[in-house]
Write a structure and sequence with these properties.
Layout lengths: L2 H8 L9 E2 L7 H8 L6 E8 L5 E7 L6 H8 L8 H8 L16 E5 L7 E4 L6 E2 L2 E2 H7 L5 E2 L4
Parallel strand pairs: 2-5, 3-4, 4-8
Antiparallel strand pairs: 1-6, 2-3, 5-7
Length: about 150
Amino acid sequence: MSIEQVRTYLSRWNRENDIIEMEISTATVELAALALGVIPARIAKSISLRGQNNSAFVVVTAGDVKLENHKFKNQFNFKARMLNSEEALEFTGHAVGGVCPFALPPGVDVYLDNSMKRFETVFPACGSGNSAIELTLPELEEYSQSKGWVDICV
């Protein structure tokens, strides 16, 4: 999927014109924070992970945290395994650097990590390596069709 598919997806909430497209890369937390003029923690990092039974899911976290294996295993009952770049594109429809919690194929669940709860707004990507949107946490929860909040990072 591309930024145009995310734009179409976000049009359900009349937010398609709120996508910020930059001339520079936002493909990493650091680059996105620099481009947007915010601290890295406010970048909503979408991590694509291998699920069970040849499935995948996305966990959105604050930009300054990392998955903690013990917490992850306690939450999901299996070991965390990130998708490689080919798998991320195959399962989510988004290339690494633009993976986001929007316009995902059916069956790709989204979870939101508590690490973002310290902010009023965060900036997830929008399907490309140079895009983002500023959302409140309730908006992120609704637009991502999240399965819920988890505590799996440190």
